[in-house]
Amino acid sequence: MASRIKEIHQSIASNPFNKIAVMVLRVIIGATFIVSGFVKAIDPMGSVYKFQEYIAALQLTNLAGCELVLAFAVPALELTLGVMLLTGCLRRSTPIMLLLLMAVMLPLTYFLATTNAVADCGCFGDAFKLTNWQTFWKNVALTVGLIYLVFQNKSVPCIYGPIIQWIVMLLTFALSIAISVIGYSTQPLLDFRPYKVGTHIGSKLKPVGEDDFVFIYEKDGRQQHFSIDSVPDEEDGWTFIDRKKVTPDLSPAQKAELNAMSIYDNGTDITDEVLDSTTNQMLLLIPDLPKVNRAYAFVLNDLAKACTDKGATLYAITSASQQQIEDWTKLTQPTYPIYTGDDSEIKMLARGNPAIAYIENGTVKWKRTFSSFPAKQLLSSTVPLARLSDDIAPSYQLWELLWPYMLIMIALLFVNRIYPVVNYIVDKFKKKDEETQSTDDI
Hints:
Layout: H1 2-14, H2 18-42, H3 44-58, H4 67-87, H5 93-115, H6 132-152, H7 162-185, E1 213-219, E2 222-226, E3 239-245, H8 252-257, E4 263-265, E5 268-269, H9 271-274, E6 280-286, H10 296-309, E7 312-318, H11 322-332, E8 338-341, H12 343-349, E9 355-360, E10 363-369, H13 375-380, H14 394-441
Parallel strand pairs: 6-7, 7-8
Antiparallel strand pairs: 1-2, 1-3, 4-5, 4-8, 6-9, 9-10
């Protein structure tokens, strides 16, 4: 049996198309892992939320609290291995390590596909959405390709030398960590979420006619809702009380696609009042209110006053319970209103606990974590609110990380080629000297 497998292996290796197949698989599989790792490294908090879903669905309580470590480590591993496979580094070890990774991911994604325990696998972050079955079959294809590379990857050499391969690995890993650190401390360097900077936010589900309202009438102390087509006759004893806007029953993701975030005050939808497109708002976004540092209380109160002085209103939006809001209010005595919203929508708008988002005339101007927010600059200077995020330029910061990385990779490739070129030239001179000396001897 072993000899038969060896014969098949040698037969494939001697096939002239084998090297082409190896190079194609390196590009396809390597690029897949590079994209997967990169988009997750960009948004570490998004990965934290996804790992929390996995841990809850799989009941892996022992891993609770490790989400942030995983959010940094997994993308770095995928990105590094993807680059190594694409360039041919560690030809024997890289496909084996990726195959071991797929040994975990393949059964996991099959479980998700059959149970739908987590609606979205998050394998490409928020950049690309795949169904659980699409993710499973993608992993099947990657696994088959990796099995082939485990046996045939050595047939095509690496573009880097042995020592430089380790430098490429460490350099790529460092790049991933740097991208994640910035994404965690400020905001993701690329925003793949619906509420990105420059988009309109608010209620795009505004009524366009009477059909978008329900009408409340009262009779004999009993209130009842009616559509425009079934409004009762007041001569029958019905008294008009109020009318309310009908809000479509959409998921947070569907509402996010419409940039239609919902904000509530004790259960009443006040989105249009808070996100008034004729005014400016500073939104304090708090997904997990009990975990917010109480030391922020005084700064937030000063921030609310400074916003008012500069023509904006500070609103806090949290997914906390009423009891948690009351506890926070008693401890911090906030001078700003606290409203509630859907946890997923709050996290989609900005990363951080808390985070700050500035809305000017209905348009998202900037957003950042509160820990990175220049509160002192706001309180002590005349800088306009719209300019308070000029110190962070996500696309520029990303380019500042990527161009040195690419430049070093090219330089390493050049350095790697110096030795064989020099060696070739030296051999040529030696051969010429030997021929000259041989001629002289004759």
